[in-house]
Each structure stands twice: as C-alpha cells, then as structure tokens.
Amino acid sequence: MTSITADRIREVVVCIAEDIAVRLGSRQRTSHINDRELWRELTCCVLSSQVPYDLAKTAALRIDETGVLCKRQLLKQEKLRDELAELLSTPFPFDGRCRRYRFPNIRARQIAAAFCVIREEWGSLSELLSHHSDARIARSWLVTNVPGVGPKQASMFLRNAAGSYDLAILDRHVLHYMKAVKLCSVETLHVATISRYEHYENQLQQHAQSLGHSVGLLDWAIWIVMRTASKIDCQWAS
Questions:
Q1: What local confidence, expressed as pLDDT, does residue 224 receive?
Q2: Which of the listed CATH numbers 1.10.3470, 2.60.120, 3.30.200, 1.10.1670 matches domain 2-27+168-237?
Q3: pTM of this structure
Q4: From CA 179, how far away is CA 183, in angstroms rounded?
Q5: Which of 47, 56, 83, 227 is the most exposed place for a label (fewest CB within 10 A)?
C-alpha cells in the first residue's frame, strides 16, 4: 500500500488542473450541439448511475444508433419504455466481451419519462438549455422534474452538453479528495439532495478559487488523480 500526504495529492491535482486548462484553452469549442447529441449525453448520464461510465456510454450509443429518441412522432411513454428496456436488456459488445446493462427496466422507465417530460414542457432539450442560461437554475430544474437525474447526473450533463465549468461533479473520487484534504468530513459517498450537494459544491468552489481554477476544471483534475490513486491502493498519511 502506498502512503501519500494530503499536501502531495493537492500538488498533483493542481498540476493536472493546469494541464487541463492549457488543453481547454487550445481547443475550439463547438458552438452548437444538436438535440440528438444532447439526448445521447443525457441518456448516458442517467445510465451512469451505479454503473461504470464507459459501460453507460456504450449503452447510450446503442440507444442513439436506433434513433428512438429522435422520432418526430411522439411515442406513448409506455411504448418508448418497452423499446428502451429491450435495447438495454440485450447483451452488447463491451471491453472485448458481451455485457448486459445492470438496470434495464428502471433506467428504461426513467429515460422514457424524462423524454416525455422534456418534450411536453420544452419541445426539445435545446430549448430547455436556451431558456436556462444559468447553470445552477438549469440543474435545479432537471433534478426537480426529470426522473433518474440527480445533482451529479445533471451537473455532468450540463458540463458535457453546455460546457459549464461552474458546476462540480461530486462523485465518490471527488468526495474522497475533499475528505482527504480536510475540506469536509463527508459521511457518505453519495450526495442525493440538491441542497446538500450545493453545500459541498460551495466548499469545493472556494477551494478551487484559492488554487486559481474553476470548480469544474478542478474536479476534473481531482477525478483523474483520485481514480489513479484508488488503482494503486493509496492511503492518506497525516
């Protein structure tokens, strides 16, 4: 087991954050993401709950390839749910072998309900994002109204779809970091309520500002570092 101090892990995070900032600065941003791409992103975020992100991404691509969320004729929610459940229940190639998605029925129900809510309320995801220019307000609406979307999933969607680095994605790696550097004593690795989520997010945002980075950029660096640390079985030294 490798021992590492909180100061050292913070130094590594800052170095990675600076590298990410340089890369983002040289990358040309896409001015517009079409609704199909937005649905692929949102679907992936819903599917990533309690499932490895790469597996969720592969499952989301399978749904996207069918075009089931892009049909002009609005399917009844039950019909859409059944189609999605069948897609998610069928094994698909992943990481050199066939895998099944872990929660096909509940995620199919959530995605179908999300699709119907957003189409009824806004017509499209593009319209929803256009109406909510403030990322926190957009996140609050998604968490309140869209089944299967919690604060972390909503933040991830807005990061990927709208390029918002004003929000934090508080996954278990980021919460581990916050505990390791004594930003807070997180009792759980899952923050479900929006008020509690924003409490921890505000603490991380202040930390990010003290290090000269946006909270979204810093949590990206934290995720990279802490994920690597977990693979080499690190413990925190005082």
A1: 93
A2: 1.10.1670
A3: 0.88
A4: 6
A5: 227
